[in-house]
């Protein structure tokens, strides 16, 4: 920690500022009573365009994104820029479905995507499958936010887990008290800091390193000297298919995560959704600038912190800031990353808690749970989720959490037929969707299992580049497993739907009506979720 006093003081002061804001948020736009999921878990479903923009942006562009994307560019080059096209194509895609999701959720009082599936397909089992998938995919995502904070602490020379435990204890306390209002208010500070730091970085650092020509020349020299066939400042014939499928698969998965929908359902009308889908690509511009920090770190000669004998590439951005910025601004940059972890972690834990409360507790333990009881259960579960995330970091190898998040992206894609396509068509049979989900999971896990990582020496679950040679093709090309798995999912769901229709296997009842997918603010009064129907 010696030599980092100024950075630490600035970091702590800004952290204290957002802590106060988190607790004060309980009084912000205060309702008469916070004791319901609509108020605690969705902020009263009343956020306008600006709040939603900061909330959704703060949720999707996490601290781990700001740390991991440049780290991937630092280690692999052009492949790390996959995050840029996927955040460009995602918004036109979700523009088509999110307004529908908001409308039908507004009419029926849905809080989670599993609520929608429960009503759309009349199947508690399918809803349980969607809820568990969301929970499993979200948990490692929360743990990854801790890795973002940890990278900053390492750069300041702070080791040990106590600071992370304290940070998450504070986060848990104000999330418990204020619900979604806390991350919504803090997101303003987080995004302001991120924009200031990144704009300063892309102007100041290149000037200090001799310009963009020098930066790209240094990156090219590094990758030309490595034996790895997949790295370089441009793509090659072997990784182009993986780049495209990874970008497209990630785009399809992004808004299937439960926490992504939490911010959307908290908005007050359809126009807020449409305006945000038009304005959120501004974050993609910043993300492109953030990715370039990986090349800047190469040109600046940054060496990652060694952890357990291995280079921790997640530390290259904090170390780059420490090397080129004055101490006080480095502290601001560190605070931007640290606060950038708190906002998504809070929203993710609320989304996971809502899934448990609505689709497990209320479905299987107490169908007559009151609004107050639901809110209380969600508050407690949100604490449990955060404790679980901290334990993941304390007890497991951080690389294991990264691997789990990679798996999470593949499995959350398997909810696409029921959630995203379900908004447009009721053609699929509930049995076909469950079978397709299972087939997609098996295919995805099998492909991930076969992926080695020569750099780390891992034989299985070593990344997202599945070699097509495993399927008998005579090629060195690789592909994203999630893309193939969801194709298997759709094929199985379609074939079994045809079979079930032909053999007249009973299907669930659709509790939604076509007009409800276009309802807007002031339309039909919110109704309770109907819990009738067979499994």
Would you mind describing this structure in some detail?
The protein is mainly alpha-helical and 535 residues long. Helix content is 67%, strand content 2%. It contains 22 helices and four strands. It has helices spanning 5-24, 37-41, 49-60, 63-76, 83-108, 113-121, 124-155, 162-178, 181-208, 212-224, 240-254, 258-265, 270-279, 281-291, 293-299, 316-324, 327-364, 371-395, 398-412, 416-419, 430-449, 481-502; strands spanning 305-307, 310-312, 466-467, 478-479. A two-stranded antiparallel sheet has the order 1-2. A two-stranded antiparallel sheet has the order 3-4. β1 (305-307) and β2 (310-312) form a beta hairpin. α3 (49-60) crosses α17 and α5 runs parallel beside α11. The protein is globular. The mean pLDDT is 87. It comes from Nonomuraea angiospora. It is a multi-pass membrane protein. InterPro entries: Na/Glc_symporter_sf, Na/solute_symporter, Sodium:Solute_Symporter. Keywords: Membrane, Transmembrane, Transmembrane helix, Transport. The chain crosses the membrane at residues 6-26, 47-73, 79-99, 126-149, 155-176, 188-207, 241-259, 280-302, 332-356, 377-396, 402-424, 431-451, 479-500.
């Amino acid at each position: 920690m010696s030599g980092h006093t100024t950075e630490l003081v600035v970091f702590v002061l800004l952290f204290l500022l957002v802590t106060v804001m988190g607790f004060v948020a309980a009084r912000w736009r205060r309702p008469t009573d916070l004791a319901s999921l609509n108020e605690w878990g969705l902020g009263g479903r009343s956020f306008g365009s600006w709040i939603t923009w900061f909330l959704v942006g703060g949720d999707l562009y996490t601290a781990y994104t700001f740390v991991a994307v440049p780290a991937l560019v630092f280690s692999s080059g052009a492949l790390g820029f996959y995050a840029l096209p996927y955040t460009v194509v995602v918004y036109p895609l979700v523009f088509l479905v999110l307004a529908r999701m908001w409308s039908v959720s507004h009419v029926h009082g849905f809080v989670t995507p599993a609520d929608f599936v429960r009503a759309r397909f009349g199947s508690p089992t399918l809803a349980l499958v969607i809820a568990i998938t969301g929970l499993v995919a979200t948990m490692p995502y929360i743990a990854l936010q801790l890795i973002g904070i940890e990278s900053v602490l390492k750069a300041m020379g702070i080791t040990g887990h106590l600071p992370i435990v304290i940070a998450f204890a504070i986060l848990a306390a104000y999330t418990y008290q204020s619900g979604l209002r806390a991350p919504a208010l803090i997101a303003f500070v987080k995004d302001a800091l991120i924009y200031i730091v990144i704009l300063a970085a892309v102007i100041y650092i290149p000037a200090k390193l001799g310009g963009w020509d020098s930066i790209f020349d240094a990156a090219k020299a590094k990758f030309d000297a490595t034996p790895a066939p997949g790295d370089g400042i441009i793509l090659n014939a072997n990784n182009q298919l993986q780049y495209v499928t990874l970008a497209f698969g990630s785009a399809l998965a992004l808004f299937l995560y439960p926490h992504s929908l939490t911010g959307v359902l908290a908005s007050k009308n359809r126009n807020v959704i449409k305006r945000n889908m038009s304005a959120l690509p501004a974050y993609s511009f910043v993300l492109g600038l953030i990715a370039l920090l990986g090349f800047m770190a190469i040109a600046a000669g940054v060496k990652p912190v060694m952890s357990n004998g291995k280079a921790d590439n997640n530390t290259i951005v904090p170390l780059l800031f420490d090397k080129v910025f004055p101490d006080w601004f480095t502290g601001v940059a560190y605070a931007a990353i640290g606060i950038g972890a708190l906002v998504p972690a809070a929203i993710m834990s609320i989304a996971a808690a809502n899934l448990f409360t609505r689709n497990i507790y209320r479905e299987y333990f107490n169908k007559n749970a009151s609004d107050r009881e639901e809110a209380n259960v969600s508050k407690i579960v949100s604490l449990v989720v955060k404790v679980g995330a901290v334990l993941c970091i304390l007890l497991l190898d951080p690389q294991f959490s990264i691997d789990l998040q990679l798996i999470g992206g593949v499995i959350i894609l398997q909810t696409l037929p029921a959630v995203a396509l379900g908004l447009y068509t009721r053609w699929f049979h509930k049995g076909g969707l469950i079978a397709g989900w299972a087939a997609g999971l098996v295919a995805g896990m099998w492909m991930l299992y076969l992926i080695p990582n020569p750099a780390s020496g891992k034989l299985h679950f070593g990344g997202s580049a599945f070699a097509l040679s495993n399927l008998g093709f005579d090629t060195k090309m690789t592909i994203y497993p999630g893309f193939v798995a969801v194709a298997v999912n759709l094929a199985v769901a379609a074939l079994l739907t045809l079979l079930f229709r032909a053999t007249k296997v009973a299907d669930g009842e659709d509790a939604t009506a076509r007009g409800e997918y276009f309802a807007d603010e002031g339309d039909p009064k919110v109704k309770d979720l109907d819990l009738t129907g067979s499994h």
